[in-house]
Design a protein that fits this description.
The termini are far apart. An eight-stranded parallel barrel has the order 1-2-3-4-5-6-7-8, surrounded by seven helices. The chain is built from 13 helices and eight strands. 49% of the residues lie in helices and 16% in strands. The protein is of the alpha/beta class and 255 residues long. α2 packs parallel to α3 and α4 runs parallel beside α5. The chain is globular.
Amino acid sequence: MAFSLARRLRAGETVYTAWCTLASPIVVESLAREGYTAVTLDQQHGLWDTAATVSAIGAIHHAGAAPIVRVPFSQFPSVSRALDFGAEGVIMPLISTPADARAFVAAAKFPPLGERSWGPHRAMTLGGLSDAGAHLREANDITVTIAMIETRQALDNLDAIVGTDGIDAIFVGPYDLSVALSGGKQVDPLSADVEKALDRIVAAARKAGKVPGVYCPDAVRAVTLAKRGFRFLAVASDLLMLRAGAAAEMKVLRG
C-alpha cells in the first residue's frame, strides 16, 4: 500500500489516529482494521522498543492505515529510524524553539531540506516502492513531520515554529500545556488558558499553511475540536479503551 497520510492531509481531510502505548502489534492492527486512518505508537510514554515498533508498523500498513511514531523527547536519531522502518509520520515532543524545529526537520527530511541519511529499505518495501531515486525525490513529501506544542516557550515562538520549512503539522499536548500555563499547579486540558491557546494555534497553523493537530481524551472531544479547525486528532489510547471496556463489563457483573 502506498503512503497515504501526507496525501490525505494535503487534500484537507480530517485524520483521526488511534493512540497506542501498549507494545502489542496485534492491538494496533486491530485498531487499524476498525477504521482509524492512522495509528500512533507512543514511544515517549509507552512501552515500545525497537523490535515491537518494527512489527507494529508493518501490521498497521498491512491493515490499511498509516503508522505514526511519537519518539522520545530530544531523541532526534530515533526520527530517521522510525521513518526507515516505514512510519508515515513522526511526532516530536516539546518543540519549543525554532532551533528545535530545524533539528527535527534535519533528522526527518532528506537533503536539501534536511540531513537525513539514506536507508529507508523497509519503508520502501512496505510502500511498494522499488526505485530508490524516485523514492528519494518524493520522500520529503510523503512523510509528515509533526511538532508538538506544549510549553509557554513554544507559544511564544509559535509563528516561527509553524513557519519552519519542513514542519508539516503541529500537535498540541493539552495536558503538558495545561501544566506549563498554570505554572505547574494543575493538569487540566480543558482549562480556559488551554482553550484560548487552542484557538491561537489553529489560526497560526492555517496562516502558515500547516496542519493543526491535538490529542483528545475521547471521541466526543475529538469531534468538538475537529469542528474548531483541528485536522489531525489523536483519540484516547489503547489502555484507556481497555480499561473503559473492562469497567463497563465489571459494572454489569457486579450488578
